[in-house]
Amino acid sequence: MSDVATYRLLDGKQCSEAVRAEIASKAAAVTAQRGRAPHLAAVLVGNDGASRTYVESKVKACASVGFRSSLIELPASTTEAELLDLIAKLNGDRDLDGFIVQLPLPKHINEEKVTLAIDPSQDVDGFHPESLGRMVLGLPGFLPATPAGIVELLRHYGVPTAGKHCVVVGRSNIVGTPMSILMSRNTEPGNCTVTLTHSRTKDLTSITRQADILIVAIGKPEFITADMVKEGAVVVDVGIHRITDPTKKRGFRLVGDVKAQEVAPKSSWFSPVPGGVGPMTITSLLLNTLKAAQR
Ligand code: GUN
Question: pTM (2 decimals)?
Fold first, then answer.
C-alpha cells in the first residue's frame, strides 16, 4: 500500500506570513499618516502557563508587523473591581487602538462582566455582544479571531465552500458558535449548510461522516478518528493539547482534537497542529487591530 499522502495542507504558517506581509505594509501607511503605529494592549491576569505563551506570541506578532504593543501583567490575586477599573481606563486611552483581556481568568473574576465592560470600539477580540451581533447581521465590526482566521485560511487556499455541508463540533462562545454563523453567511467563503454539534448531540459519528467541511473545536485530544470522517472531507482542527511523551526532548508533544495520522490521509485538505489554525488566530487579531487603527 502506498504511504503517499494525497491531502493538501491548510498551512497556517504560510498563510499567516502572506497576510502579515500585507498587514505590515498597511500598518506602515497608517503609521506615516497619523504619526504613530497601530497599538494593541494585552492584559494577562495570573500565572496560567498556556495563557502566558499565547499573550507573548501576540506581543511578538505585533512587533513583526510594525505595531506597538503593551503587555499588562496583573497578579492572580487581582480583584474583579480592580480589573474593571483598569478596563475603564483602557477604554478611554486614546493612545491605544484596541486591547484584549486574555481568557481564562482566575475563578473569582466573572468573565462575562469583563467582556461586557470592554468598549466595543476597542474590542479587537470580537467577544463583546455588540461585536457578535454585528457579525450575525453582516455589519462592519470586529470578527472573533479564531473563526475569522479559519475563514481566511479557507479563502487563501481557495477551498470551495458554497453549498457544502459544514459540520462544526463544539459550541463555545469564542469558536464553535461564531464559526457556525460565519460559514452560513452569504459571503465567500461561506454559503454552507451548517450543522452545529455539541456534547448532547446524538450519534455524532453519523453527522460528522456527512461533513464536506469538518471544523473541530471540542477541546478533547485526538477526539475525531478516521471512522468519523468522510473520504475527501476538508478537516480543520482547532484544538491544541500537550501530551506527555518521554520520547521527545521536551517531554511532550502537541496534538489537536483530531487524530491526525489516521484522518489526514482521508482528507482533501487538512490543517495540522501545530501550524494550522493557531498562527491564523493571531493574524486575525492583527487584522482587527489594523482595522481599528484605520478608523
Ligand atoms: N483564550 C483563548 N483564546 C483566546 C483569544 O482569542 N482571546 C482571548 N482574549 N483569550 C483567549
Answer: 0.94
